[in-house]
Design brief:
Keywords: ATP-binding, Glycolysis, Kinase, Membrane, Nucleotide-binding, Transferase, Transmembrane, Transmembrane helix. The chain has 490 residues and is of the alpha/beta class. Helix content is 45%, strand content 17%.
């Protein structure tokens, strides 16, 4: 019996070796580039976004915006009330603080505003890493750690920056985790993300927790505004340009906020704000429509993600996912044809090994021999000695994925423009400015240019110069301080 088992095992191993050799021989016959091109053309057709389809997506986005404003749960778009109803005018003066908690680090900022002439007179900040044990520990311990750093930073105020007697320091708190906002300065935590897991904090008012921690430190400071980073981007942009109507984040994640007429918000049951406006945090990453060009690669990535079925739009447009989609396309082609050699490179099978900054480096290589492409393939995926034809193919895959994302982001922005009635020229002098922040937009030049070009394409010849895209840097920091200043009690 033992001999038979050994014989069987040897036979199976031998057959496996023969099969492997036959596969390698088959693959070693050379790359059939005609077949590769056919396969790629089929994928491209599924990613295609002609102008008319983009307009349909924008209209679908607009429809969902209406539904989300009508009632909670009426749309995949949450359309959250920010309670920001006063935007900066440039007249703001004084010293304001900001706390930006968005991940494993947090920043505290001190901003001195000098009105229309002085603008941002002075700015200083401190960045602090959160110890891992505090991310899964007690709620009080986390907020005490943050408040202690804030207290230390506030103690470094210069004499010229000190507030007059009887005036309280005011803080804008950027909290980039899901919260149910109850007012401008309160909101309960819905769930943690980004590695945090403090169960007792869920359902608590994060502003109340921070306030108690500051009191324990003896720090006399009031949280005037609790804001989302997208709202901060809009506000930071509005401070520099009064025509800014929307803020968009295009970085690791993606979201948008815009200025809405308060009278159109059916789910708002309070008194209408005096300004007649309200900033709405769309949470557009969760937008979903049958019109979206979702491929087998997107479906597989979504299925294997931590939140399957959610954040579909974000998974198509944000920096967290673009490199991974490229990897999955290259892996599929490499399994069919030996574009990287007779054996599929093992590293190519590792999820998220190709990050979007590396993809950007590959995509932007303009050298005749695509040297940077070869270097990145070697460094990241362990692929050596690629042909120029193979390197060009990799660039083509990056181009397809990046431009699909950029065109979709442009369609989302066009949907906002349609919703606020800025898609037609009612006033020849009217400008509509979209403030965008995030590393994907700032550093991926081909992406940002395609976004701009696509928006002009959607707007048409008559309107293309009436809508302007601008970069709003550090909205999550300075923007929070500006919201505190706009709603100041001092």
């Amino acid at each position: 019996m033992e001999r038979r088992a050994v014989y069987t095992a040897v036979t199976v191993a031998a057959v496996a070796c023969v099969v492997a050799v036959l596969i390698i021989r088959k693959r070693s016959k050379g790359i059939k580039w005609g077949k590769v091109k056919e396969m790629f053309a089929e994928i491209q057709s599924k990613c295609a976004l002609p102008t008319e389809k983009l307009k349909q997506i924008a209209s679908a986005m607009e429809t969902e915006m209406h539904a989300g404003l009508a009632s909670d749960g009426g749309s995949k778009l949450k359309m959250l009330l920010s309670y920001v109803d006063k935007l900066p005018t440039g007249d703001e003066k004084g010293l304001f603080y900001a706390l930006d908690l968005g991940g494993t680090n947090f920043r505290v900022l001190r901003v001195q505003l000098g009105g229309k002439k002085g603008r941002v007179v002075d700015q200083d900040h401190l960045e602090v890493s959160i110890p891992p044990h505090l991310m899964i520990g007690a709620c009080q311990d986390l907020f005490d750690f943050i408040a202690e750093a804030l207290s230390r930073f506030a103690a470094l105020e210069s004499e010229e920056h000190k507030l007059p007697e009887g005036k309280q320091r005011e803080l804008g708190f950027t909290f980039s985790f899901p919260v149910k906002q109850l007012s401008l300065s309160s909101g309960t935590l819905i769930k943690w993300t980004k590695g945090f897991s403090i169960e007792e904090a869920i359902g608590k008012d994060v502003v109340a927790e921070l306030t108690k921690a500051m009191e324990r430190q003896g720090l006399d400071m009031k949280v005037t505004a609790l804001v989302n980073d997208t709202v901060g981007t809009l506000v930071g942009g509005r401070y520099d340009d009064s025509d800014v109507m929307a803020g968009v984040i295009l970085g690791t994640g993606s979201n948008a906020a815009y200025v809405e007429r308060a009278s159109t918000i059916s789910k708002w049951h309070g008194d209408l704000p005096q300004s007649g406006e309200m900033v709405i945090n769309m949470e557009w990453g969760n937008f979903k429509s049958p019109l979206l060009p979702i491929t087998e690669f997107d479906e597989a990535m979504d299925f294997e993600s931590l939140n399957p079925g959610e954040q579909i739009f974000e998974k198509l447009v944000s920096g967290m996912y673009l490199g991974e989609v490229v990897r999955r396309v290259l892996l599929k082609v490499a399994q069919e044809y030996p574009i990287f050699g007779d054996i599929v490179p093992p590293k190519l099978e590792t999820p998220f090994i190709l990050r979007t900054p590396q993809m950007s480096k590959i995509h932007h290589d303009s050298s005749p021999d695509l040297k940077d492409v070869g270097t990145k393939l070697k460094e990241v995926l362990g692929i050596h000695n690629t042909s120029l034809k193979t390197r060009k193919f990799v660039v083509d895959v990056c181009d397809m994925v990046a431009k699909r994302a950029a065109r979709l982001a442009a369609a989302g922005i066009y949907g906002i423009i349609k919703k606020i009635g800025r898609d037609t020229k009612s006033d020849p002098k009217q400008r509509t400015v979209i403030a965008i922040d995030g590393g994907l937009f700032e550093h991926y030049t081909i992406f940002s240019k395609c976004l701009d070009d696509t928006l002009k394409e959607l707007l048409g010849e008559e309107m293309k110069n009436s809508v302007v895209i601008t970069h709003s840097n550090d909205g999550s920091g300075v923007g929070a301080a500006l919201i505190a200043a706009s709603h100041s009690d001092n």
